[in-house]
Amino acid sequence: MTTDSLPTTASTTPAPGRWVVDPTHSSVEFVVRHLFSRMRGRFNDYEGVVVIDEDPSRSTVEAVVRTGSVDTAIAARDEHLRGEEFLQADQFPEMRFRSTGVRLTGDDRGEIDGELEIRGVTRTVTLTVEHLGTAGDPWGGTKACLSAYTEIDREEFGVSGNSPLPAGGLLVGRTVRIELNVELTQEA
């Protein structure tokens, strides 16, 4: 057996119960257009809880991301992103997500509707989610892995920092893709 073929359960969703995000084995990332390329970044401080109901449509998700933990591997850019034009991390230290509905769309896929709050502005978003598998870990616990993404218009959240280009257009794109790779630990 290779590490790419770990055994997982056949269930289409993790077992009912309370699951907590393991930040050591998860990532909260974003991608935004910058000039002609795509710039990637991440947040390093976050937490979340997923409660799976017997009826998956009644499951819930809550998550908090600390804006001061933004990391693009360039210290000066990170400070700029924490500032007034972008995340305003001193005044709005947290971004929050709270689910409002869950739909299964396939054997291992679903959508999670919810309210995303950035800079004190709340908008409705839909996360497209894939359940990558559930398995026991070497220490007797149970892990489930999910991958999810959504796209937002950052200006709808008041994140409007930008610079005009000499030939027209803007330096930073409005659309931000949010990508989550989450390893969950089931609470006993």
Task: Classify the secondary structure makeup into a structural class.
Answer: mainly beta
Mean pLDDT level: 90
| SSE succession | EEEEEEHEEEEE
What is the CATH first-level class name? Mainly Beta
Largest sheet: 8 strands, antiparallel, barrel
Task: Give the second-level CATH assignment, the architecture.
Answer: Beta Barrel
Fill in the CATH topology.
Answer: Lipocalin
Instruction: Work out the strand percent.
Output: over 45%
Total helical elements: 1
Compute the separation of the termini in Å: 29 Å
Number of strands: 11
What is the C-alpha radius of gyration, as a whole number of Å? 18 Å
Core attributes:
Lipocalin, 1 helix, eight-stranded antiparallel β-barrel, mainly beta, elongated, 188 residues
Write the layout of secondary structure elements.
Layout: E1 17-21, E2 27-34, E3 37-43, E4 46-52, E5 60-66, E6 70-71, H1 75-82, E7 94-106, E8 109-118, E9 121-136, E10 142-153, E11 172-186
Antiparallel strand pairs: 1-4, 1-11, 2-3, 2-11, 3-6, 4-5, 5-7, 7-8, 8-9, 9-10, 10-11
Family: Belongs to the UPF0312 family.
Domain Lipid/polyisoprenoid-binding YceI-like: 18-185
Protein name: Polyisoprenoid-binding protein YceI
Write up this protein.
By secondary structure, this protein is mainly beta. It has one domain (16-186): Lipid/polyisoprenoid-binding, YceI-like (Lipocalin), CATH 2.40.128.110. Helices cover 4% and strands 54% of the residues. The chain contains 1 helix and 11 strands, in the order ββββββαβββββ. An 8-stranded antiparallel β-barrel has the order 1-4-5-7-8-9-10-11. The model is unreliable at 5-10 (pLDDT under 50).
